[in-house]
Each structure stands twice: as C-alpha cells, then as structure tokens.
Amino acid sequence: MSYRQSFSKRIAVHYSGSKTVSVAEGQRSVTVNYSGTEYEDVQVNIDVETTPFDHSITQCNNTVNVLTGAVVATETAQIVTIDKNAKKIGSTIVDGFFKTIRSEISQQISELSSRMDATLMHLHEMAKRCVAKQKQMESDYSNISGRYLKIFADLNTELSNRVFEIDKPAFVFKKQADTQHSRSSENDLVSVATIFAAEDGNLQARISASVAKKRALDTILKANKFLVKQKCLNATINNSMLEESLAALKYSPVCYLETQNEHSQIDKSMFQSNYLPKMQTGTLIDGLQGREWKNPSVENSTQIGRYFYAEVSRHYSDGNVHSTRVRENIINMFDMNRIRVL
Description:
By secondary structure, this protein is α+β, with helices and mostly antiparallel strands. The chain is 65% helix and 16% strand. The two termini are 125 Å apart.
C-alpha cells in the first residue's frame, strides 16, 4: 500500500565575505567584511509506492509457506526413515552380537569338550597305570613280605633251637613233667581199668620217648645243616677276600673360595676336612691359580645338582617359613651361577 511521508526542518545558512567599495568618488577604496546567518524553513514530501513490494511480499509469503510445508513433510519423512533405519541397524547389531556370542560360546564349548575328552582319556590311562602299579606293588609286597616272613620264621626256629640246646635239660624236664601230669589227669587212662593201667602206661611212655627222640633227631639235623651252611658261607667269603696290601691314593674334597669386597679386592680362602692333616693353604692356592678352569660335562653337572638339591632339602626340611625361604634363596643362587672345574 502506498503512503506519503512529510519532513520539515529549519536550515541555518552561514555566510561571510569581504567587499571592496570606492569612497569619496573613487578617491579611495574601502574593504568591508560581512558575515551572518539566515534561516530557511524547508518541508519535503515523500510519496512511497509499496504496491510492487507488497505483491512480492505476498508471493514470498506463499512460497515460504509452501517451503515450510515441504520442510515439515521432509522432516517427518526423515524422522520416520531415521527411526526405521535405527530399528533396522539396532536389530542387525543385536543379531550380529548374539550370533558372535553364540559362535564364541560354541567354539569354547567345542574346545572345552575336546580338552575334557583328552583329559578324561589321560585320566583313564593314568587310572589304568595306577591299577597296574597297585597290582605290581601288591605282588611285590606279597613277595617281599613272604620272603621276610620266611626269613623271620627261620630265624625264630633257629633261635628256638639254640635256646632249647642251651637249656636242654630244663626243657626236657618240663616236657616230661607235663607229660606225666597230663597222663595222670587228662588222658584216657583215668577210665581204664586198673588191670590194664600198667600196660597202657608202658606203651604211652615208649611212644612219647620215641616222639621225643624223633624231634631231637630232627632238631640236631637242622642245627647240623645250619652249621654246615654257615661254615660254607664263611669259607666262600674267606676264599673271595685277597689277603694283600697295595699302595693306593685316597682323595678328599677341599673348598677353594674367592670373594670380592667393595674395594674390588679379591680374598682367597681354602677349606678342608678336619680329619685330614693340615695342608699348606698358600701352595694349594698357587697350584689352583695356575690351572685352567672349564665347564663340567652334562652328566657331572646333573649329578652335582642332584646331590646339591638333596643336601639342601635334607638340611632345610623343617617346613617352616624361614627354612623354606633359606632353601629357595640357596637354590636360586646355585641356579644363577655356573660351576667350573679343573
């Protein structure tokens, strides 16, 4: 829509200057300076034609409304698409995650199953070996126990025979006294008629004497056999021994120790057994310094390590914390060093 706008304002105009005029009929000229301010009221009327602008605004408004509707529709469609895609992506991720977990669990189950089967087979084989070892140990125990029982039985029999031979009269008297006591009170002679008592008594006495003689003969034969075997054994030992004296060397271990202090000074020491005569330490140290050290063989290293571990375990077998820590430190120091021999 068109409209008019009016503006009014008083404008001040400043002026100044100079002018030369003739005075006294041109005889002389005089310069006159002048200045001042004049005011003028000015009014301006402005006619504004807004019809084309209003028309363009209306068209722009319609276009903006159409664009707004399109944007809203696009945003709605985008939200629906985003929601749909988000649900699809989420479903895919969840399915993939569970598939991955299911696959990992299946692989672990397969691995554990195979390991369990292998472990069960190994345990089964170990059980068979344990049963075989048990049977073998039972057989060995039976053989060893039978052998030792036989040895102890022979020793008991021989000891009984020797004790019997030492106090033979006392044992014979005890045996005859027991025989007479049982004959008079425990056998069948009590119920036998008196007319047959003498014949039965004579017969029982002869039978008992015969049995005693037979046992004495068996005992003498066993003792004779034992003495013959002992004499043969002594003869075999005497024949196996050599009665002669030869010159030989005897070896004894010594310990040569080198230590280095904080001043890089090396101290040398020698230790030997107490039952040996005192040796010259300086001579031994000089002899050891002139020789070349080398690594021992694998067999000797293994034997030295086995003996060393056994000695350490034997001396520190209390089971307390201090002994265990000392044993572990000694073994660690031994493992960190290398043994050199001459």
